[in-house]
TrEMBL record:
Taxonomic lineage: Bacteria, Pseudomonadati, Pseudomonadota, Alphaproteobacteria, Sphingomonadales
Name of the protein in its database record: Uracil DNA glycosylase superfamily protein
UniProt key word 4Fe-4S: yes
One GO process term, biological-process aspect: DNA repair
InterPro entries with a match to the protein in the record: UDG_Type-4/5, Uracil-DNA_glycosylase-like, Uracil-DNA_glycosylase-like_sf
Natural source organism: Sphingomonas jeddahensis
């Protein structure tokens, strides 16, 4: 996923260790033995986790929205975007659009007008990514609202339209996994709040037969306000990455 990067691995490792400590991780292995060298078996079409909740309905392309991901990303930050009338900065999605992992949040942070998840919430987010061996460079990060609403939360009168746009975005990107962080993102994709959707994988079906596995978790902003939830968020991240062991691009 592409460009050469210079990464301070010592800082990245220290950040990941700090996140694990805050999440309550105190051992490096589980109680049960696991053969890490064993070949990964085929993924069942109807696994128990996916069957735990009914799959969401297929996402049909909307005539008003571009049907190609590059065109859609340009349209999403153009003057025709629903948020353009707010007259505040519109923030583009970041990271490769073809990444295997997409992350959806509600809107840009108050203290970050040029990128998603800046400030203190962004620093915590970076530590969370490092803890699962990922970085912003290899995930596709997007928001339901491309601009920050004046009141700081999703306008209820636009929720349905922005949810439709978010689902279309996810359908075009068609990642293997999608992490929705916070209630607004969870409602946009799964039509319910995080607390109802946590703890299991959900299936988001796309036209053409592709399926994205969706995990719901807390927004980093919530974790800063309620640090005790970090242990729950760590379980969500483990669920998100559990099916990727042994996978190679």
């Amino acid at each position: 996923m592409g460009a050469d990067q210079t990464i301070d691995w010592h800082a990245a490792a220290a950040s990941a260790l700090e996140w694990w400590r805050d999440a309550g991780v105190d051992v490096l292995v589980g109680d049960d033995p696991f053969d890490w060298l064993a070949a990964e078996g085929p993924v069942a079409v109807a696994s128990p986790l996916l069957a735990a909740s009914p799959p969401a309905a297929p996402v049909a392309p909307t005539a008003a929205m571009p049907a190609a991901i590059a065109d859609f990303l340009a349209w999403r930050i153009a003057e025709t975007a629903p948020e353009a009338e707010w007259r505040v900065p519109i923030v583009a999605a970041s990271g490769p659009a073809d990444a295997d992992l997409m992350i959806l949040i509600d809107c840009p942070e108050r203290d970050s007008a040029d990128s998603l998840l800046g400030g203190a919430a962004g620093r915590l987010f970076d530590r969370m990514l490092a803890a699962i061996g990922r970085s912003r460079a290899d995930v596709h990060l997007a928001s339901v609202c491309a601009a920050r609403p004046t009141v700081g939360r999703m306008p209820r009168d636009m929720e349905a339209r922005l949810g439709e746009i978010a689902r279309h975005h996810a359908s075009l990107a068609a990642p293997r996994r999608l992490l929705v962080m916070g209630d607004a993102a969870s409602r946009a994709i799964l039509l319910a709040n995080v607390i109802e959707m946590r703890g299991r994988l959900h299936a988001l079906n796309h036209n053409g037969g592709k399926t994205t596995e969706v995990v719901a978790s807390f927004h980093p902003r919530m974790l800063l306000e309620r640090p005790a939830l970090k242990a729950e968020a760590w379980r969500d991240l483990q669920l998100l990455m559990a099916r990727t062991k042994g996978e190679e691009e």
